[in-house]
Amino acid sequence: MEEKDQKQQTKNSTTTSAVKPDKGHHPEKPSANRQSSEKSSDTNEVVIEIKHLKKSFGSKDVLKDINLTVRRGENVVVLGKSGQGKSVTIQCIVGMLMPDGGTLKVFGEEVCDLNEKELKELRIKIGFLFQSGALYDSMTVRENLEFPLTRVLKLKDQAEIDKRVKEVLEGVGLADAADKMPSDLSGGMRKRAGLARTLIVHPEIMLYDEPTTGLDPITSREISELILSMQKKYKTTSIIITHDMECARITSDRVVIMNDGEYIEEGTFDGLQKSKNELVKSFFKDIS
Ligand SMILES: Nc1ncnc2c1ncn2[C@@H]1O[C@H](COP(=O)(O)OP(=O)(O)O)[C@@H](O)[C@H]1O
Ligand SMILES: [Mg+2]
Q1: How far, in Å, from the CA of 194 to the mean position of ligand 1?
Q2: Which among 55, 134, 156, 161 is most buried, taking Cβ atoms within 10 Å?
Q3: What does the pLDDT average to over 218-232?
Q4: Residues, beta carbon < 5 Å, ion ligand 2
Q5: Does the C-beta of 247 come closer than 6 Å to ligand 1?
């Protein structure tokens, strides 16, 4: 099922002309907001601000009016049925999809206005865990982890690289798996290794797209707890897309419910559990 979703994603991204907007004609802007993207102790700092976001594919209006503010260090869970546009929303956040309307600011900068270079800089600060958490099959876990350090962060100091690999593997509970091949890992371990590869560059924002899909309940729970502990350890700001209520309960500071192109309700997990809205209630119906 994961594979199918991944293919769907790949297929989608090649069948629309909106995926890769041409940003060539945007002039270089002075980076006035750069400072705001540095780690600060201001926990009220708005990291992601989405207002009236719209996105359609042909005649299909997928995002109609999305509004969301995420503050530094917060874990926001987006709950919604399949095909609601949850993945589309996060693809807009990283500039992979161009919205049709509204505003979308990350670290105070309008994502649509960024040129290629600025977009690349932004993406270094955003960890994106896809549904499949893809690892390179021909590389060991260690090589998979070293890859973003040498290619993205351009680190050269092997001692620093070794330190980061060791630290992140311990963090995700895979200290003994450094020299294993991905094919030797279980599904849950692969997910952990994928998460480690994303976290090793210390992203300020993490976007998790269905992090527990395809995993058994026990492993799902472990991954959810890992997401929570990574938030505490790295002080990351996260959006977690899921329809796994246990994952939502464990990881969320705040939950938003998406339906028909809008976020219809938001609150804490416990707060939403008491909602009178029928749709919201339907998400919680199997929870005791
Ligand atoms: N690149 C794309 N081109 C055309 N349609 C797309 C594209 N991406 C997503 N869609 C459509 O948008 C809708 C929402 O998709 P998605 O965000 O993947 O849903 P969710 O993640 O909530 O399950 C679906 O109908 C999907 O087919
Ligand atoms: Mg999706």
Answers
A1: 23
A2: 55
A3: 89
A4: 87
A5: no
What region, left, alpha or beta, does residue 217 occupy, with left being phi > 0 and alpha being psi -120 to 50 degrees? alpha
pLDDT at 62 over 70: yes
In a domain, 100, yes or no: yes
Residue 22 belongs to a domain: no
The verdict on residue 225 lying in a domain is: no
CA distance 220 to 240: 13
- For residue 191, the model assigns a pLDDT of 86
Half-sphere exposure of 270 (CA within 13 A, CB side): 1
- The answer for 261, left when phi > 0, alpha when psi is -120 to 50, beta otherwise, is left
Total domain count for the chain?
1
Q: Tens digits of per-residue pLDDT, 120-168?
A: 999 889 988 865 557 899 999 999 999 999 988 899 999 999 999 999 9
CATH number for position 247: 3.40.50.300
Instruction: Tell me if 85 CB under 6 Å of ligand 1.
Output: yes
Ligand closest to the CA atom of residue 59: 1
Which among 61, 88, 91 is the best mutation to test ligand 1's pocket, defined by most ligand atoms within 8 Å of the CB? 88
Residue 84 alpha carbon, nearest atom of ligand 1: 22
